[in-house]
Amino acid sequence: MIQKLLCIRGPLRERLDPYQQTLSKQFSSQSQNEFAISFNKICALIQTSLEDDKIIQLQPDFLSLNQNFNAALNRDLQQNQVQQQIQVKELEYQLTVHTTNQNRLKQQNAELEMTTKDLQRLLLTLKQDFDSNLKVKLEEQTEHLNNSKNQLQDQLAQARFALQEMQNEHETCPQKISELETEVRVQSDAKIQNQGKIVQISEKLESEISQKQQLEAHCNNLQANIAQMQKQIEELELRLRNIGQERTQQLSEQQKQLRSIEDYQANNQLLNQHNSQLQIDLESAKNSIQQKQEQIIQLQQQLENHRQSAREAAEKLQSAIQGAQIQEQQFQKHLFQSQEQVKKLTAHTQQFESIKAELIESQKQVAIHTRNLDQLKLKMQLVQQQKNETVDQLAKTQQHSNKLQNELDEWKQRSLQLTTNLAQVQSELQAKAAELIKSQAENEFTIQQLKQREAEAQNVKIVQDKSDQQAKMKQKIAQKNKTIQQLVEHIQVKEITHENTQMYLNCKIELLSKQTRNSQANSQLAELKQIITEKDKQLIQHQNSIQQLQSELKNLQISYEQLKTTSIAQITSLNAQLSSTQQELLIKSKENESQIESLNITLQSTQNQSKSQILQHEQNLVQMKNLNQQFEKLLNDLKKENEDLKTELQLNQMDFEMKEQDFETQIQQLNNKTQNEEENAKLLNEAETEVLKLNQEKEQLQNEKQQLQNEIIKQQKEIQVIVNDQNKMSEQNDKMQKEIDKSNKKNKENAERQKLTEENLKQKNIEINQLQNAIKDSEIKMSEIQKQLENKTTELKNALKIVKDSQKQITELQTTNQKQVSFNEQQSTELNNLKQQLKQSESKITSLETTIKQYEDDKSTLQKQIQRNEKEISDLNAQIGDLTQTNDEIKNKLSTVQQQLKISEEQINDIKKLNDKPENIDEIGEQ
């Protein structure tokens, strides 16, 4: 049985070796580990079966191994296909990016040509305008010079004539000397005044010096911007370093994969150790060793090929680095030239910004004036409100006068009612008078009765005396009736006077309120007059400031015209420089195109390599399928052998049982035959000889194990040689990275040199700041050209990086172009805004003049209204005087009426007393 198993072990090893080889070549670490684990399980089961002399059913384990193997195959194939598709897509994307970038570069060159043509057209127009303006100005200046010459000639003739007169009259006119001395004093005073003007001019110069200092600060800001650009370049270098680090990480990952292969090889060693017990046939082992040696030879050839390709790549990189260094030197020269141009342009920009600052200050002054005018408008509005309030007050006074008139009408109505009431009272008095008449009639009746009595009793004389007395009494009664009527009239007058007093008091109260209001209005008018005078002064100040602004604007226009002469020459020089830079850019674009073509060739080669790799993978797949088929055949054979072994085991068990029974019978016989010791000794010797044979076989097997282990150690040494070669390759890659770092250091040193040159240029900028101010339009075009040059410098810098990362270069060019377009648009918008602001300032000046005129018109209207208010106040004062006179008259009338009332009251009391006592009439008549 053991011999059969050992016979099976040899062909199984022969069939499993190619699987092991394919695993070491083509599978990932995960699939290798899975396969090793499953294979180790099977080997352990076989060992246990050999040690226990039992065979276990290996079919499910073989099936699981096959399934894991197929799953690992499919997984690795899918991953490889996905990675290859991704690589192909990335290569296609890089091709599309290169083509798009070529088209964009062509478009940019076309746009630059168009901008140069537009600049040339603008220069022609500017020259024409400048020539026309020059001719006009020259004619004006020649006229002015001729006039000044004529004036000077006249003055010289006058001076000569005066000298002759002075020589003639020198002896006779000493007084003229004193007059001349006075004139000298006047001239000295004029010199003093001129010295004051010189002080003012020095102050202006100091202000200009401060402006120059501001320009220097702006230069420093520009230099800070240049430093920012250098920082951006350093960031790009850091990106390149990061790319190098990523590549080192990739190499480290590859080394990790190699280490995983070493782990796999360790697992293989374990497998070999487990299989050493099964490896009996030395011929099969030798065949496997020969195959491995052939594989090692193939791997060595591959390593040599890789080394050659790496050397070629290193040579290419060195050549590319040298070309990049040459381009960097050319680029540095071009940068130096462009920086000089940029510095000149910065000086012009600083001057232009100084003009802008002056304009901004003038605009601020205009804004301040506008604010002051707005404040004046607000004050005018307040004045108008006060006017409206005064008008409202006058309207209120009119309303109040209307109320007074209404009250007078009411009083008239009341007087009418009182008259009606008086009529009623009179009617009542008449009724009372009728009653009195009745009482008088009764009295007369009584008198007649008395007369009759007296006639009967007394004499005729007495009767006559009584008749006389009665006549007197009648007269008294008539007088009393008159007094009653007078009292009634006095009562009516009293009521009227009472009403008049109430009216008087109300009028007085109203007059007092009107007087207070008039005093308030007078104070408000005085305040308004003061405000108007102050506003007149402010208007004069504003007019003076506007005249100053207009003079400053004229000066700015003169400086603007002077700028044209300087800027046109600079523009011509810049155009020449632009043409040279365009030629250089065309040459460099051609170089870039050649580089792009080389990149395309490399891409095509990489695509071909990828296609060849895909074909190799497909071939490997076919091989793997064949191996799967062979493995399935092995499994079927193993199944059949397993079934045969099972049958043999059953037969052996039957034989073993029979032998056990025979052995038991023999033992019984031996027990029975204890006396036969010699036979027992022979049997023991035979058993010991069998045991010795088995021990010898074990030693032979151990020797074979040691031989196999030695062969495995040799294979491990060969694998270590391969690993060492790979480590050497990684060291070479590290050396290449060090060379790249050295080149980066050189770039940093060049950047530091650029900084030193920039510091030297800062000192030169102080001298360049003495240039005249640049024209606005030409300055804008110059700034655009400057930005185009800066963008071109960035494009050249990025061209150096195309070898390392073309895709990043193209994206950066796109961003810079977009920024350029946005910046140009911003500048155009800012120019339009400045023009609009100038137009707005002019419109504001015109509007201020119109508002000033309106203000003067409003002032005249206010003065007229003030005159009207004064007239109304004088009329009111006259009315107040009339009312005071009427008041005094009413007071006098009241005093007289009160006296009369007192008299009438006394008389009424007397009459009442008489009426209350009619018996005393005779006594009263006698009295």
UniProtKB/TrEMBL annotation:
Region (Disordered): 726-758
Coiled coil: 74-327, 359-442
Basic and acidic residues bias spans: 731-758
UniProtKB keywords: Coiled coil
Full protein name: Uncharacterized protein
Lineage: Eukaryota, Metamonada, Diplomonadida, Hexamitidae, Hexamitinae
